[in-house]
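Field reference: sequence -> structure
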Amino acid sequence: MSTPLSLTSNFFFFIFTATVLYIAYTIPKQEPNQTNLVFYVHDYFSGVDASAITVAGKSGPTSHILHFGTIAVVDDPVTEGPTIESNEIGRAQGLYINSQLDGKGLHMAFSVIFTDGEFKGSTLEIQGADIFSMKEREFGVVSGTGYFRFVKGYGIMETEFMDIANLRAVIKLNYMYFVLYIIVKGNFRNTKGLQNVKNLVNAIGVPSVASSPHESLRKGNWVKLICGASFEDVADIRNLSLVYTLAGVDCIDCAADASVVTAVSQGIEAAREILPIRRPWTMISVNDDEDLHFRKAEFDPEDCPLDCTRPCEIVCPADAILLEGKRSKAEVSHGTSNPGGFKGGVITERCYGCGRCFPVCPYDKIRVVTYVRDAAATAELLKRNDVDAVEIHTSGRQTTLFKELWDGLKDSVKHLRLVAVSLPNVGDTTLSSMNTMYSIMEPHLYCSNLWQLDGRPMSGDIGRGATRESVAFAVRLAAAKDRPPGFLQLAGGTNAHTVDGLKKEGLFQTTSTTKNSGKEKLTAISPSTSQSLIGGVAYGGYARKIVGRVLNSLQTQHGLSVIENHPEHLLEALQEAIALVGTVKCFEYPLTS
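Structure field:
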């Protein structure tokens, strides 16, 4: 006969079972790629470490769990192995109700909160019935956050250990994990269409040109895609990462968020399933203080007058502001239906803090929300196998906060291949600040380092001239004799004209440079004659814009989809990406298909 403990235990097995299944209502039948993971829930009703308790019922808090109407609340530890000494990766928190008149069935609703490991910061939402007389019980996963956005799925539980006398058990969770985790609509992979994608990549020689990211820095043809330090739309990030991996980038820079890193990794691996191409590095961005890259816009749409022309929607380059009557890519951060104002607002995961909406609001309703990434959480994220680099954004005007952040990260830096520091041109103090920061890092710097020269932040999509400041910054530092060690890389306003600007200054893939046909020679040379003065270029807003047009078209036609399931869109996006990456990589390619 089932015991109160087995009822509680059974309830939790399905918690890990549902990751990322196909959620679309019109999805055709298709066998997904599946991986089985095993976790364990420790369900204790007694002892100093008790994690479950009855709280209400016919006889009050002392009601028996086998009686109809009894409610129990749980906060069970979740571990990687069957013993409590195993690494704890989360908690199963929620409640269950004996909802069957004969007492033989439960209704369950709870959250699985991941506190460590690959899914740290994400949750799964569980709801359903537990007919505990069955040997194996399936349960539904109805939603999730972070890595598990849009998830639906199921799981199976079984009891690993049972101590009936003391009401203590360990439940083994066989976790069926499916690789597609965003909404998918439309046709599945078109092999013939993907062949055109493969032909394009091979025709321009991406695999033959590709070298290790470190070698690309040395040669001066390093290309980094900047997804955005605050851009957290995992659907777009996954597709952007796939496209630019096929285009041959060396690194993909993203927000220091576990679900975002996972989206990047899945995009990379999806690209490599199409073609065996070199894997780019994954970089996460953090800040030591308030920074333009680490902020969001915020406003209450109910406060907006109905006669407002909504200029904020027009100027937003990320489609992160959607008001009533507009189709949303994701859930809007402020959703109300007050007839006195609009519905909608800022889609927080899409807003990357460019600030263009702030000055155009005719009623001054838009606020800026700034934040600083947590050093301890970042240090844990750096230990993931799919994180290769970190970038620290700093003002360049003081180094105290930089040192505090570095002290919090330095023990995790040994896991990395590259440490980057992003800073603006602050004039005469730039070089002294760089040297001070390098002296702070040097004792614990076990890998290469890079200086990101942030010319005109988040402006590359505005126009041709936006790149001038980054090129001018590069000219200054390339000529400096007393700059600290480390590769130099342009960012901030970079676009399709950046390489032309470097060529005019004699700085493109050269170890020394002569400007204006030999009339003015820069005196500095690279420490190694085989290392380029400028390691490469990072592209952010412009790179997202040119591929984003295709992603928007994809969504309009097919909803939220993985781009490889629609090869015509993938081919179009890849052509745009290759045209940009090719300016640095010097591809020779046909762009007709």
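Note: Residues 122 and 146 are 4 Å apart (CA to CA).
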